[in-house]
């Protein structure tokens, strides 16, 4: 006669509890550290890409690399990096002001040095607060030149504006501000060393 053991002692048949044990403090800290590192790395990547946008604009307008600037029309060849854009402004309350500034030497120098300084600062991760302020001012002026709120240009044609308020100029400005506030230059950049410099410690607006 077979004997069936119905003992409750069954070594491999434990069912999982519906309530999992809380994570230990060590594992939670490790997870937070991983998430923080991932976020900082992604932020650094965004910083480098954003800086390259400004630096590339400077290089293309300077040397005429046949993208936005035709060959032979670069700044180094005597071309004006602001003439075409500002003379083409066709909407907004500052239209005549931008036309009068188009191609002026001081405007060209200010614009090009701004592109170079912002691009180098953001890519290297130094002076991000200064770069954020300068970049925001530049983007605000370019936004005013394109004037997205206008539905029609001054000649009556549709402006083809896709959004009356938020366009890529606003997004670039927001990204620059976020990078500065988030100290994004400390990863894949020179931010930590820059912040340790005496002149930067004494003048926090340089950080």
Describe this protein's structure.
Helix 5 (128-146) runs antiparallel to helix 6. Helix content is 56%, strand content 0%. It is mainly α. The chain is globular and about 70 Å long. The chain is built from 8 helices and no strands.
Radius of gyration from the CA trace?
28 Å
* Span between termini: 87 Å
Number of strands: 0
| Residue windows where pLDDT falls under 50 for at least 5 positions | 7-12
Strand content: under 5%
Biggest sheet statistics? none
What sequence of helices (H) and strands (E) makes up the elements?
HHHHHHHH
Q: Report the principal-axis shape.
A: globular
Proportion of residues in helical segments: 55-70%
Number of helical stretches of at least 4 residues: 8
What's the average pLDDT? Answer: 89
Structural class: mainly alpha
